[in-house]
Structures are given as structure tokens and as C-alpha cells.
Write a structure and sequence with these properties.
Layout: E1 5-8, H1 18-31, E2 37-42, H2 44-48, H3 52-60, E3 63-71, H4 75-80, H5 87-99, E4 103-110, H6 118-132, E5 136-141, H7 149-155, H8 164-174
Length: 175
């Protein structure tokens, strides 16, 4: 009875068709009378696949926060990381969601450009974040995950993990 927040986790639930997502949100609202907010992971492509009216319908059902991994505002880095969207698409997605009443928390990954593109990564990420004007913004430090493409590149010597001092410098450039 006291549940006020719910989170649809384990991936990008925004990929569901609106017709599938609406009953889930309706069920949450019926089950938890004090529910104030539902959160969701989202990516730019899935937000942009929904009409403004669909996004407003989701927001009306208390889906009012989404977490989007910008990761980098640099299109070359996004391409290397196979993000699937460019920076302009991500800006449009955040603006569209927020215009429909869904606050977006944007995540930037410090170190994603490695030493090679650190300054560009910081500069372009700051520029894109400013264009997005998200409700929330986080700068997290890159962590390599075993069995991922980036970790494989690291093991082959094709990607260099930045040291703490360099990460702090990148954060200063970003700010």
C-alpha cells in the first residue's frame, strides 16, 4: 500500500509498443494507489518511435522519468561504441520526452573517448547535454565489463583505459 515509485528494469522497456506498455502502467496504478512515479530505461530510437501523443499517454499514467545513456556527445565515439543513435537524435529524443512530461536523466560516461579523444568527448558531451537541457545529468566513470566488445578491444590493446587524474581532467573540460 505504501509503494510510491516503481521502475521497469532489466533493459529498455520503452521498446515495447505503447499498446503493450499502457496496460502495464495501468496495472501498476491500480495495484499501488499511492503510486507517484514510474521510471524506465530508454534509448533515443525507442523514444523517437513514439508519437508525442503516445508519450503524453505514458506520462499521464505516471511514467514520468526515463534514464538515457547519452554516453558521449561525440558522433565518432557513438559510432565506435555502436550506440545506434547520433547526438542529434538523442537531443531530439530528450526534448520530445520532456515535452510530453517525462523527465529524462542523461548519463555521460567519462573515459569513453580514451586518451585519444578525451577533449573532444568532453567538449561534445557538454554541448549536447546543454542542447538537451535534461532534468537530471550524471557523469559516471567508464567501467569495462567482461565479455563485451569494448573489453575485447581493451584486451587487444585497441582501447586504453584512462587513469583517475585524466578522468578528473575530462570532467573539468566537460564542466
Amino acid at each position: 500500500q505504501g509503494v510510491r515509485r516503481a521502475f521497469l528494469c532489466d533493459g529498455d522497456a520503452m521498446c515495447l509498443d505503447t499498446a503493450e506498455l499502457v496496460p502495464i502502467l495501468d496495472c501498476l496504478n491500480e495495484s499501488f494507489p499511492r503510486l507517484e512515479r514510474v521510471g524506465i530505461y530508454a534509448n533515443a530510437a525507442n523514444i523517437l518511435s513514439k508519437t508525442p501523443a503516445e508519450l503524453e499517454s505514458l506520462s499521464a499514467r505516471k511514467l514520468t522519468i526515463g534514464y538515457l545513456g547519452l554516453e558521449s556527445g561525440n558522433d565518432e565515439i557513438l559510432k565506435r561504441m555502436r550506440k545506434g543513435s547520433n547526438s542529434d537524435e538523442m537531443v531530439e529524443a530528450v526534448r520530445r520526452a520532456q515535452g510530453a512530461g517525462i523527465d529524462i536523466s542523461v548519463i555521460v560516461l567519462l573515459g569513453l573517448g580514451a586518451y585519444e579523444m578525451s577533449r573532444e568527448h568532453a567538449r561534445d558531451s557538454a554541448s549536447v547535454a546543454s542542447r538537451m537541457n535534461p532534468r537530471y545529468l550524471s557523469a559516471l566513470t567508464l567501467m569495462l565489463i567482461p565479455k563485451t566488445a569494448l573489453n575485447a578491444r581493451y584486451k587487444k590493446g585497441e582501447f586504453e583505459v584512462m587513469d583517475a587524474r585524466s578522468i578528473l581532467q575530462e570532467l573539468r573540460w566537460f564542466l
